[in-house]
Amino acid sequence: MTTPGPTRIVIIGCGIIGKHHAVVATRHPDFVVTGLVDPDAEAISRVADAVVEQGAERPVAYGSIAEALNAGADLAAICTPSGMHIDQAEECLAAGVHVVIEKPLDVSVRRGVEFARQVAKAEERGQVVSVISQHRFDPASQVVRETIDKQSLGTITSAVASMAWYRSQEYYDSGDWRGTWALDGGGAVMNQGVHTVDLLRWFLGRPTEIFGHTAQLAHERIEIEDTATATIRFESGALAVLHCTTAAYPGLTVRLQVHGSLGSAIIDNDELRYLHAGDGEIDDNLRSAKVRGNQAEAALKDRGDEFAGSRNDPDSFLKGHLRQYDDIAAAIRTGSRPLVDTQEALLSLALVRALYISSTLGQPIVFDDVLDGKYDDVVAEVKGRPAS
């Protein structure tokens, strides 16, 4: 399946994110971009130019996925609109190559469940499938997850996740697929906020119930929401509040707070701004874990991470994907499971869809019911929204 030497990648979809994957893969020592697929010749040319600018050979342009895979490839990176992801991933799986899918997994949970079964069989054949969720690899996220795993925050009680971004009307008008249910799969939550949803779920575990509200308040000519809120209950009993918007002018930060009985952590703008990891002693006078100050800086230094992960770093987007490609390379090399596999991506997709279903029906939604397909037909009949 994989030839000796660098892993040969075909980039499927040569828009902004496809170009980004091409640059990341070219900079990574374990990968080489050999092929590009897109119906837009100019888009292919721009991505090919970007690869050459990195000092690599110009990749070959192909007219179809099948043609590119038949020419020889080890991995396909799918960077097309969200509603096309699984269709194209299935073709690549059938060809026997590894697959990387840019977030989200797809727009349909039902398709995601079916695809996960196919992936399980492909994994038995040695294929690796990973979905991009690069913020799991940020030093801040890694520290918080490790602190939770060590139970240094005590019992996780609650979390607050807020993504206050801004997207102009021109952004939505720039592509026919933007702002559509069929190809975008949703708005502020599915397209922009899915990373925040994924981190929230990664930190707090499996959701059990969600009650969401969505609205379109500051944009025109789109089908999807630009503002959403939700409350979420998790299996552990922890509660969370989620807020996502692309109508917060001029665009602020993503902030994620995790609180427990012995400590708290705050990530803002991808940086670990606050960490108190308790030592088990409680000062009742202070009504908080025993005070030892903000441990965030020390925790990052202990890991040896020079990059704090801030979006203020001009290379933060690049570095995040490079870290995930490290994980993908290791999975291909050793046969291990990538951190963000299909099942993980499916759960985050289902949480987003549960929010949309709850908003549509005006009632709390049981998370497992979404995965089981209970709302497939119901949601298709309400407000014209697609099935889950």
Features:
single chain; alpha/beta; Dihydrodipicolinate Reductase, domain 2; 2 domains; eight-stranded mixed β-sheet; 14 helices; 38% helix
If you had to describe this structure to a student in words, what would you say it looks like?
The chain has 388 residues and is an alpha/beta fold. The protein folds into two domains: 7-134 and 320-341, Rossmann fold; 136-311, 2-Layer Sandwich (Dihydrodipicolinate Reductase, domain 2). It has 14 helices and 16 strands. It has helices at 16-27, 41-53, 65-70, 85-94, 109-124, 139-149, 169-173, 188-192, 194-204, 296-303, 316-334, 342-361, 367-371, 376-381, and strands spanning 7-12, 31-37, 60-62, 75-78, 98-101, 129-131, 156-164, 207-215, 227-234, 239-245, 254-260, 264-268, 271-276, 282-283, 288-289, 365-366. Strands 13-12-11-7-10-9-8-16 form an eight-stranded mixed β-sheet. A six-stranded parallel β-sheet has the order 3-2-1-4-5-6, sandwiched between helices. Strands 14-15 form a two-stranded antiparallel sheet. The protein starts with 6 loop residues before the first strand and ends in a 7-residue tail after the last helix.
